Amino acid sequence: MAEKATKATKKKTTKKAAAKDADAPVKKKVKKKRITKAEREATEEAERLRDKWQELHTLSEGQPAKKYKIVDSYESNSALDHAKLGWGYVLTSQNNRLEVLFEDGIKILVSNYEAG
C-alpha cells in the first residue's frame, strides 16, 4: 500500500510541476555555433591581410595610384585603383597576371591584354 501512495504522490507532483511549467514562458536554449579550426584560421588570415592592406595604404598615401586598365602593364610593389575593387597594391606581376591585395583580400587581375 505504501507503493500506491508513493506512485500517487509522484503523479500529483508531476502534474503540479507540469501546470507550473505550462504557465511559465518557454525558454529555448540558444546553442552557440562552434567555430572549426579551418574557419578560425581563415578569419585570422583575412584579418592579417586587412592589416597588411591598411599598412600599405598608409605608407603610399602621398603617391598617386595608377588607374587599372586591362591593357596596361603594372610593376610589382605599385599601387593601382580599380573601378569596383578600390585601391589595391600589386604584390606580384608574372605572365600578365597580377596578384593584387585589396581591402577584401587578394585578387588576380589580367594585364597587357591584347584583343585579337
Characterize the structure shown:
This protein is α+β, with helices and mostly antiparallel strands and 116 residues long. It has a domain at 36-116. It has helices spanning 2-23, 37-59, and strands at residues 66-67, 79-82, 86-94, 97-102, 105-110. A 5-stranded mixed β-sheet has the order 1-2-3-4-5. Strand 2 (79-82) and strand 3 (86-94) form a beta hairpin. The longest helix is centred in the middle third of the chain and has 23 residues, at 37-59. The radius of gyration is 31 Å and the shape is elongated. The termini are far apart. The mean pLDDT is 84.
The shape is elongated
Distance between the termini: 100 Å
Count of helical stretches: 2
- What's the gyration radius in Å? 31 Å
Q: Give the DSSP E fraction (strand runs of 2 or more residues).
A: 15-25%
Q: How many strands in all?
A: 5
In N-to-C order, the SSE pattern is: HHEEEEE
Low-confidence spans: none
Fraction in helix: 25-40%
- Quick check: average pLDDT? 84
* Structural class based on helices, strands and sheet pairing: alpha+beta
